[in-house]
Amino acid sequence: MVRAALSTAHGWAEDDIEIVVIQTTGDIVQDRVLAEIGGKALWTKELDRALLAGEIDCAVHSMKDVETIRPAEIAIAAMLPRADVRDRLIGAESIAGLREGAVVGTSSPRRSAQLQRLRPDLQIVLLRGNVDTRLAKVASGDIDATLLAAAGLDRLGRSDVGASIEIDVMLPAPAQGAVGIETRAESDAAQRIAAISDAATMICVLAERALLAALNADCHSPMAALAVIEGDAIRLRGELFAADGAAHVTGHATGAIGDTGFPATLAADLLARAPAEVRALFGG
Q: Mapped to the 3 state alphabet, what secondary structure does 199-226 carry?
């Protein structure tokens, strides 16, 4: 997708752009929760090393998997137009349609907390791996259901897989559905990559990431956030959970486009109103 966008923007032949596949620790280690073995850096450290060493000119990421604080030498140069931000449920037509005590596989603290808040009877088990691995677990009956990002399924040509969950039922993870491209800061590549950036996606995802930063959230922190542009303003929603979903707090804030401070205001409001068991997982 990035190669095609660059070819269109600059009139380059696609063969002039080399794709280098880099396997990350997050790809290799599939039997443990990310937070226990290094967090989101497991998806970025190998690409960061290659980028800073000059082995690649840019790195393509799912922005949901990029840690909030990045090295000063690396810049987020562009984001492609955002895809569907929703989650999809595999194994049932709706969360309400899951059988009593159903076993749901996920490695996401957010999804686990949201599911348990909606259905405390559900059994949540660790499930990692690629899309085929997760779908196979449901098909074999090892688990009753799982959740996957709609954007990932759509990009793999599997738009017909799963039932979409509306955002008023399950608010998505910050940056879900966004593909970001990083370069070395101040490099020639940064300027070329910026030509394919979608302004609305960049604005919204950076607001969501600013909320993450203000909350001191990490891989242990069950939270959801979504920013949307409404006219000349940005509306940012956030929701924080206890690990078991039993307690939560939600809120929203609106800021002008270009206002980088309002996500921190929302973070302070959420933390001030959050129950202690929620606040303990964040900046409070």
A: HHHHHHHHHHHHHHHHHCCCCCCCEEEE
> What pTM, to 2 d.p., does this model score?
0.91
Structure tokens at 32: 């443990």
Structural tokens at position 60 = 């393509």
Q: Beta-carbon neighbour count of residue 9 at 10 Å?
A: 15
Rounded Cα distance between 113 and 168, Å, is 15
Pairwise CA distance, residues 102 & 99, whole Å: 5
Q: How many CA atoms lie within 13 A of 48 on its CB side?
A: 17
Give the pairing type, strands 123-125 and 145-149: unpaired
Q: How far apart are the C-alpha atoms of 199 and 88, rounded to whole Å?
A: 26
Tokens describing residue 59: 């790195």
Token pair 């259901």 is at which residue?
Answer: 145
Enumerate residues 6+ apart whose C-beta is below 8 A from 98: 91, 92, 104, 119, 122, 144, 145
Which pLDDT value is given to residue 24? 72
65 is catalytic: yes
Candidate list 15, 27, 57, 65, residue with the active-site label:
65
pLDDT digits (tens, 9 = 90+) for 156-194: 999 999 999 999 999 999 999 999 999 999 899 999 999
Q: Is 32 left (phi over 0), alpha (psi -120 to 50) or beta?
A: beta
The whole-angstrom separation of Cα 283 and Cα 278 is 10
